[in-house]
Design a protein that fits this description.
The chain is α+β, with helices and mostly antiparallel strands. Helices cover 37% and strands 17% of the residues. The protein is built from 24 helices and 28 strands. The strands form eight sheets. It has a nine-stranded mixed sheet, with helices on one face. Helix 2 crosses helix 8, helix 5 crosses helix 8 and helix 16 crosses helix 19. The chain starts with a helix and ends with a strand.
Length: 749
């Protein structure tokens, strides 16, 4: 027994020593909070943290502040920065191993590291100096940690040093998130190959009566194609398939969100204009943004005092206020990438046709380093237009053209907003800035407000950019960029308000230039517009009320429709339907967590949408079994038109009339929710809208999830409400500020 006790004691000591060692190692990776460092800066530079850990960085020169920003980013967020650059460059397998190979191969095709290197080479001397000083600060911050960040211990990997091109790659990670649209374009091409043009136009109607553009009127939903154009009843009888199945639909398209607006000084208590911004993105640990205040004292350089969000990996404030102007963004959903149909000739193998005659494919070999395994070689074929990315459903070879491929379209000019003094100056900076094209909204302390499109916008000639097209004709393709002075611009509109919410913002020739990569349905923007115009004088608290508005107005009409469908005949001897009617009838119009009525209504509307869209695209899935179509929010316009008009020729042939289909979808919803929750009453919106904010490693190592992930919580909100909220998607930040009155503003993250 003495030997057993001794052995147990030794084991406990070893375990205790191991736990202590792990604790000390992880603790050593935390940032330096109180220390004097000898650093490569020209004068005293200070990184100060408040009780929440938010940094204020002050120095005598802008490049010194860039160095300190890099130092702070590396100490707090290096693993996040590393993932961003590796994601864009296709270098994740070097850390994660073979599990990341497919993702890396997809990214390597675009060669973004080579493009990023060229962006740095083309940068102005001031921009290059800013990047180089930031890079030096990042590497100093990483080296000053007592231990490498804990993620590298778990992955048994070493962090690699930062370089100036890595900061450009972090920007390219945002390009991928915000502008890469190749799949949707390929899908549209497949639809057009099968369906009549009238039906394709109807499914992709450019707008509806809910539109809320800044310039121009609302668009109408395209006309419903007649039975002579397309008849599902005839299709079913000739195909021998009497039932339409929704299995061919892809999951619902990722949520679209982000709001920003401005209120002119004529409508604020202070006389200074107000800007509100809540950029919606995928939610994760840590946050997308890194909040900071950057100060440069007056002296040899212009004094700067700018507060807002930075992107870990880049040296400037992305959105915020500098005391003179405040600004924010929403994704524009313009079209900034195209697929080119490559025409080959059996007579000349290894070549393809161009307007100048046959050309041979350029072949590049990419080497992907794989953690714990041999390197992987990948061959990339390139054309005069861009890299070959595969084939479409029809077997046609496709090449990709994307703003991110062009080094001249990306730059660091955004940092000049830090010293802008008024709306016009800020707009001039915006149209010269090379970032993923965004709606840019700005306000200044004198009371002015403005809007423009920020980023480089391609000029297209001779083809329809909505679907893959041949460029094998003289003059067809991208012909340079829209000149900065030609970007659409709005300054001090008569209403005194500007609003964007990913919707179509303009019309006419400017819209044709911008293109349409899936603007959001206009109801959210209209709800924001109406709320702004209803307030003659607004303050910061009014901005927050609009940002937290969880009303989903389009569901008001769906509620009326469902109550109409659930008439006495539908309810006869059907208690579950009666329960559903009672809950929907009592719905108060908001997407709150405790509402069972909203969940029934929302789920039923989605089920009707899926059944209708599956029927309309049945022929496409029959011809191309692998075809998937993700429902878009803008399909709400055509969907409602069909529900109102009830055309029999566009109804799923499994049903005799639209009411039968609508009741069948409701019965499916009732059965599904009752099974999930035990009763309809218990199946609230909150039980579906449970927000999960997770660390990238928690899925791979589930036991660590409780330490790495945020608690799962129920939150109100919906994709059609200003408060856009999904399971892993929502407001990445939320602020409102009047420049010059920052102390009265608020910031949420």
């Amino acid at each position: 027994m003495r030997k057993v006790r001794l052995a147990l004691l030794v084991i406990l000591l070893l375990l205790g020593g191991t736990v202590l060692g792990v604790y000390l190692t992880v603790r050593a990776s935390l940032p330096v909070l109180d220390q004097n460092l000898q650093a490569e800066v020209s004068a005293s530079t200070v990184i100060e943290r408040d009780a929440l850990g938010v940094v204020t960085i002050s120095g005598a020169r802008r490049n010194d502040v860039a160095w300190a920003t890099g130092f702070a980013h590396a100490q707090d967020r290096f693993f996040q920065m590393d993932l961003s650059r590796r994601f864009a460059a296709g270098e994740l397998a070097e850390v994660f191993g073979a599990v990341a190979l497919d993702a890396d191969k997809k990214r390597r095709v675009h060669g973004l590291r080579r493009v990023a290197r060229e962006v740095v080479n083309r940068a102005s001397a001031a921009e290059r100096a800013l990047l180089e000083r930031y890079t030096a600060g990042v590497n100093a911050g990483l080296q000053a940690l007592g231990s490498r960040p804990f993620e590298y211990w778990l992955l048994r990997a070493q962090p690699a040093a930062w370089s100036p091109e890595d900061s450009v790659l972090v920007v390219y990670a945002m390009y991928i998130d915000l502008t890469e649209n190749f799949e949707a374009e390929e899908t549209r091409g497949t639809l057009r190959a099968v369906l009549p043009m009238e039906l394709d136009r109807f499914i992709h109607s450019p707008g509806s009566e809910w539109d809320a553009p800044l310039i121009g009127p609302a668009f109408e939903v395209a006309p419903i194609p007649g039975a002579e154009v397309y008849d599902l009843r005839k299709l079913a009888s000739t195909s021998g398939d009497g039932e339409v199945r929704s299995a061919g639909l892809a999951p619902e398209a990722p949520e679209v969100g982000s709001n920003n607006w401005a209120v002119a000084g004529l409508h604020t208590a202070s006389g200074a204009a107000l800007v509100a911004n809540d950029m919606h993105l995928g939610l994760r640990v840590p946050n997308t943004w890194y909040r900071a205040r950057l100060q440069v004292s007056a002296g040899e350089e212009t004094a700067i005092d700018v507060t807002g969000v930075t992107l870990a990996g880049a040296p400037f404030v992305v959105a915020g206020s500098n005391g003179s102007v405040a600004w924010g963004f929403t994704n524009s959903y313009g079209d900034f990438c195209d697929l080119v149909v490559i025409e080959t000739d059996a007579q000349t193998p290894g070549s393809y046709r161009t307007p100048e005659g046959p050309r041979e494919f350029e072949t590049l070999e990419e080497t992907i380093r794989v953690h714990g395994a041999a390197d992987e070689k990948v061959e990339v074929r390139r054309t005069v237009w861009g890299p070959v990315v595969g084939t479409d459903a029809q077997g046609r070879l496709l090449a990709a053209v994307w703003t991110a491929h062009f080094p001249e379209a990306t730059n660091m000019a955004l940092w000049q907003l830090e010293s802008a003094t008024d709306v016009v100056q800020a707009l001039d900076v915006a149209v010269r800035s090379g970032i993923p094209p965004q709606n840019f909204v700005v306000a200044d302390r004198s009371g002015s407000i403005g809007w423009t499109y920020m980023g480089y916008i391609p000029l297209r000639v001779g083809f329809d950019s909505a679907a893959p097209a041949s460029w094998n004709a003289p003059g067809v393709g991208w012909q340079g960029w829209l000149a900065p002075g030609a970007h659409p611009r709005l300054v001090n509109p008569a209403s005194g308000r500007i609003w964007t919410a990913n919707q179509r913002t303009l019309d006419g020739p400017a819209l044709e230039v911008l293109g349409d990569a899936g603007f959001a349905f206009g109801s959210r923007a209209g709800q924001i517009r109406d709320a702004l115009l209803a307030r003659e004088v607004a303050g910061e608290s009014d901005m927050l009320a609009i940002q937290l508005d969880d009303r989903s107005r389009i569901h008001d009409r769906w509620r009326a429709k469902l109550l109409e469908v659930l008439d006495e005949a539908a309810l006869e001897e059907n208690a579950p339907r009666a329960d559903a009617r009672r809950l929907v009838d009592g719905w108060h119009g908001r997407s709150t967590t405790n509402s069972a009525g909203f969940r029934i209504l929302r789920t039923w509307r989605d089920r009707v949408r899926d059944r209708v869209l599956a029927a309309l695209t049945l022929e496409v899935r029959t011809r191309y079994p692998g075809f998937k179509l993700a429902p878009q929010s803008r399909f709400e316009g055509p969907l409602w038109r069909l529900v109102e008009a009830e055309p029999l020729h566009l109804l799923d042939p499994a049903f005799t009339d639209w009411r039968e289909m609508e009741l069948a979808m409701l019965d499916e919803v009732i059965a599904e929710l009752s099974k999930e929750c035990g009763s309809l009453q218990a199946c609230t919106w909150g039980k579906r809208n449970r927000v999960q904010v997770r660390h990238p490693l928690s899925r791979a190592i589930p036991p660590l999830a409780r330490f790495l992930d945020m608690p799962t919580v129920e939150l109100p909100g919906d994709v059609f409400a200003p408060r856009v909220q999904g399971t892993g998607f929502g407001a990445s930040e939320r602020f409102a500020v009047s420049p010059g009155n920052e102390a009265q503003g608020y910031f949420h993250m």
